[in-house]
Amino acid sequence: MKRVTRALLLTLAGLPALEANDLVADKDSPFYYDWESLQLGGMIVGGLLCIAGILIALSGKCKCKYNKKHSPLPERATPLITPGSASTC
């Protein structure tokens, strides 16, 4: 039963690939994409977003609000494990 199910799923998953290899492309179809233009547009948008992110990061307008208050922890914390306290039984 497991083999039959697996074979059926693989067959159903492969059916769209058989239809997609149709060499006759209808350029008037709403599902026809010019992949090179789409890729070029995506690279341009990605580059512009990257440059904008770098400019925002370097502009100094987005500063971390680092609070220089003293930590509630003592300056010198005691170690959790001191030499000789841990045993290796």
Task: Please tell me about this protein's structure.
The mean pLDDT is 75. The protein is flat, with a radius of gyration of 31 Å. The chain has helices spanning 2-20, 35-59. The protein contains two helices and no strands. The longest helix has 25 residues, at 35-59.
Brief descriptors of the model:
mainly alpha; membrane; ion transport
Compact description:
The chain is mostly helical. The chain has helices at 2-20, 35-59.
List the helices and strands and how they pair.
Blueprint: H1 2-20, H2 35-59
Transmembrane segments: 40-60
Protein name: FXYD domain-containing ion transport regulator
Organism: Lynx canadensis (Canada lynx)
- Shape type: flat
The number of helical runs is 2
Alpha-beta classification: mainly alpha
Q: How helical, in percent, are the residues? A: 40-55%
Mean pLDDT across every amino acid position: 75
Low-confidence stretches: none
How far apart lie the N and C ends?
54 Å
Organism: Lynx canadensis
Protein name: FXYD domain-containing ion transport regulator
Family: Belongs to the FXYD family.
Transmembrane segments: 40-60
